[in-house]
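Problem statement: downstream parser choked on a complex file, so we are re-checking the raw output for the iron/sulfur cluster run. The parser issue turned out to be on our end (a line-ending mismatch), but while we're here, posting the original submission so the record is complete.
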Amino acid sequence: VSETVGISACLCGQSVRYDGKHCLMDNAPSTDQRFMICPEVMGGLSTPRAAAEIVGGDGWDVWQGHAKVITRDGSDVTQAFKQGALLALQSLQDAQIKTVWLKSKSPSCGSGQIYDGSFQGVLKQGDGVTTALLRQHGIAVVSV
Ligand code: SF4
């Protein structure tokens, strides 16, 4: 019996990424073994949407109130990112999912490395807002 894994919806051909495109992966779990989430859409953000990066820290700092999620055009979308992360956590817990594969470098789903808030394509160490929350609650995050 294979365990169902959570997965960033944009990795499975769902066009939910900020720019309206998606990013396919070769070895995605089969339909009945995956549980798709998109925290940014779950948080009420539209698609396409302005690119966003975490300013002042990473996802862990966002939860501690020390960093914010800001779009390229200067809007503060921190609350939508936090709301989406909380809904993603709740849905994963409801489905008893223990492992998620999340899209690398995203301000929501990134793991280990995210963009640095300068919108210059520069990476910094850190987790996205959703990744930090899921890890805090014992869900294993695999970066894809
Ligand atoms: Fe949604 Fe995460 Fe993919 Fe961004 S990286 S589009 S938040 S699933």
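For whoever reads this later: The beta strands are 5-8, 34-37, 52-55, 68-71, 99-102, 113-115, 123-125, 140-143.
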